[in-house]
Design goal:
Helix content: 40-55%
Largest sheet: 7 strands, mixed
Strand content: 15-25%
Number of strands: 12
Radius of gyration: 22 Å
Distance between the termini: 59 Å
CATH topology of the largest domain: Rossmann fold
Number of domains: 2
Length: 346
């Protein structure tokens, strides 16, 4: 291999990393303009799409060509563009849509958070108070539209995770399960639907569970599920034999994570079971798509809510500090992005 080719390949790869933000923003604008929805019925000319989206025709065509280079759309003859299978996942009406996740990830809030990564690395603090004077959850309380997009994005992700949870674990031995910080109820509704004798209680802040009653009712589970507004730093419903927290602990530093777990511990009986659904960081980061997702998500926790992703050993330390012992960790789904951590009180 020549010296020229040895230097060109790493340089090209590095340039792709440097310019990664461009692709992310292009996908966000495509989702914002609902371009995948508009192409759902067939190919359209850029001029037609520009009229539908009230955008500049020439500029929109440039965006569409960039999206074509990313595989989101396909440029066809006659200056028309068609949706690809990749781009179809950005439609709002498909089961595994990522449109809300794209809108959340490309929002000005997240854009600014990541723009302040240097601040977070230098100080060890979330970028949110630095930028907005409040943490992520107080921000959502005063920005209901952004909270709605966030909750819908979490529902889209949770829907797949819930399928993997049900396929991995049988909840039939429990009588009542409490979903702590359960958002709009997507996870709890899936577990209850798969476990006919099980009753559920969903706890979250009003800004988090605003849509939960509708989700539960739409699933036909209103008779078996109660939605409660509350703060898991203060109390959680007592007396259940199962408690589950999905993507809650990673939002917080160790001190606050332990505080949440201790609140749960006080509400639980000795024979109760606590489940965590979290990303489990590998002990060593290697060059792989999975490790990359984990490591970048860990940085997202730093700049956003101020939390962190943890390894299995770090979860063990956290759980022991709050009075729990880990029984087992089960990888969820083929990708293994999430894990189900089953614990019991010590």
């Amino acid at each position: 291999m020549s010296q020229s080719s040895m230097t060109t390949a790493p340089t090209a790869a590095l340039m792709q990393l440097i310019n990664g933000f461009m692709a992310s923003r292009a996908v966000y604008v495509a989702a914002e303009l609902a371009i995948p929805d508009r192409l759902g019925e067939g190919a359209k000319a850029a001029d037609t799409l520009a009229g539908e989206t009230q955008t500049d025709p020439r500029s929109l065509r440039r965006l569409l060509r960039a999206l074509a280079s990313l595989g989101v759309v396909e440029e066809m003859r006659g200056e028309k563009f068609a949706l690809t299978p990749l781009g179809a996942a950005l439609r709002s009406d498909v089961p595994d849509t990522l449109r809300n996740f794209a809108l959340m990830s490309g929002s000005d809030r997240v854009w600014r958070m990541w723009g302040a990564l240097s601040h977070s690395v230098r100080t060890g603090q979330s970028a949110m108070p630095h930028l907005y004077g409040v943490d992520s959850f107080d921000y959502f309380a005063s920005h209901p539209q952004e909270a709605r997009v966030f909750n819908q994005a979490m529902e889209d992700v949770t829907r797949k995770v819930a399928h993997d949870v049900i396929a991995t674990y049988d909840f039939a031995r429990f009588r009542t399960i409490v979903d702590v910080g359960g958002g709009n109820g997507a996870l709890l509704a899936s577990i209850l639907a798969a476990t006919p004798a099980l009753k559920g209680i969903l706890l979250d802040l009003p800004s988090g569970n605003a849509e939960a009653l509708d989700v539960i009712a739409a699933a036909g589970l209103a008779q078996r599920c109660t939605v409660v507004a509350g703060d898991f730093f203060r109390s959680v419903p007592e007396g259940a034999d199962a408690y589950i927290l999905k993507s809650v602990i990673h939002d917080w530093n160790d001190e606050k994570a332990i505080a949440i777990l201790e609140v749960c511990r006080r509400a639980m009986a000795t024979q109760s079971t606590l489940f965590l659904i979290e990303h489990v960081m590998p002990e060593r980061i290697e060059l792989s798509p999975r490790a990359q997702r984990m490591a970048l998500r860990d940085l997202h926790m730093l700049v956003g809510p101020g939390g962190r992703e943890r390894s299995e050993a770090e979860f063990d330390q956290l759980l022991a500090s709050a009075g729990f012992t880990r029984l087992r960790t089960s990888s969820l789904g083929a990708e293994g992005s999430f894990s189900l951590i089953e614990t019991s009180p010590i």
